[in-house]
Amino acid sequence: MKRLVLATVAAAGICSRDMVVAIKAAGGKKILYHEYKGLGHNVWTPTFSDDKVFEWLFSQRRRLIR
């Protein structure tokens, strides 16, 4: 199953960069990662102005385990 991981963080988020590297190392192929420099914690405004965020959000499906 292919998954898209969306991560939008402030530029100081070095831990987020490490997580992207770890996801790719574990076989993750489709990762959308964007840093907004200089916005600090206010990344929400440009993030929620981006239609791709909602396309990703509403395309997520929970896999049923039987």
* Helix fraction bin: 25-40%
Secondary-structure element series: EHEHH
Rg calculated over all Cα atoms = 13 Å
Domain count: 1
Give the biggest beta sheet: 2 strands, parallel
For the secondary structure, the number of strands is 2
Q: What strand line-up does the widest sheet have?
A: 1-2
Describe what you observe in this structure.
There is one protein chain. With 66 residues, the protein is of the alpha+beta class. It has one domain (4-59). The protein is 39% helix and 21% strand. A two-stranded parallel sheet has the order 1-2. Strand 1, helix 1 and strand 2 form a beta-alpha-beta unit. The longest helix is centred in the first third of the chain and has 12 residues, at 14-25.
Quick recap:
The protein has 66 residues and is an alpha+beta fold. The protein has helices at residues 14-25, 44-48, 51-59; strands spanning 4-10, 30-36.
List the helices and strands and how they pair.
Elements: E1 4-10, H1 14-25, E2 30-36, H2 44-48, H3 51-59
Parallel strand pairs: 1-2
Features of this protein?
flat, 3 helices, two-stranded parallel ribbon, single chain, 66 residues
